[in-house]
Amino acid sequence: MEVTYSASKNAENIRKHGISLARAKDFDMGPSANIYYDDSQDYGELRYHAVGWLDAKMYSFIFTFTDGVYRAISLRDASPQERKSYAEEN
Fold this sequence. Notes:
It is a single chain. By secondary structure, this protein is an alpha+beta fold. Strands 1-5-4-3-2 form a 5-stranded mixed β-sheet. It has 2 helices and 5 strands.
């Protein structure tokens, strides 16, 4: 999967969450991922929120998707609530 991201967002993500946005290319976007529209705010663009697997660990991945390319915005460990919702839906 092709993933782009801004260098400043990547540095912030590493600082805040301990993982590079470059790892988003390995996020499992298959049928096991729960993917939602992120309409929690008006971002001025359509954002998605996926909860799924990366290296046998559950992560939360925020991104946009245009012309077959994912633009990573955030990648972090899934929260307890996200884990619970994932378990209820799968």
